[in-house]
Amino acid sequence: MAKTGQMFLTVTISLLIAQAALATSYAPVKKEQVYSNDRKHFVVIDPKTERHQVFSSDKPKKVRWDFSWGAGHDTWALSNSGRLVVWVSWRHVKEEDSKRPCIVVFDWHGVKRFYSFDDVSKLRKRGPREVGPIGEFWRVWYESIEVTDDAVTITVAGGGAVEVSLTDGSLVKVKAVKKAAKDK
Questions:
Q1: CB-count exposure of residue 12 (10 Å: 0-12, 13-18, 19+)
Q2: How many domains in the chain?
């Protein structure tokens, strides 16, 4: 009977170790400040509370407006006016999540616009030398992101680029990929 119990414990521990070895883990997301390109405004991204606050640099203790959204390994951009925040999802996405938002535009009312992975990109498998999460179901949806004074330009997988206006949140330019928007 003692051998059976010991064997059960050994098998259980082995399974737990194997499961942990196959699991994907990420570095913890830290609180950060994201500045507008002209540095006149900033947004404090707080992954713990998921409440994000926009400030003017000349009044850094007075919240201009705030909004709620989950924060992960994502990219954030703030307009020079301090009126819009653009959230761009992490580069890696699970294949089954292709209909979920990958770009969300916020203003003081909350979500102003959003665009799904299917709206802006053709998901691709990770290349053999690319680093990313473990699992065959993971896909890449963009190659690079550039934030300028008036737009967030995302070079998407499958070719082309999308440009999100930092003036009104619209998808202002689409090259070689389809365009669609869901307005609130």
A1: exposed
A2: 1
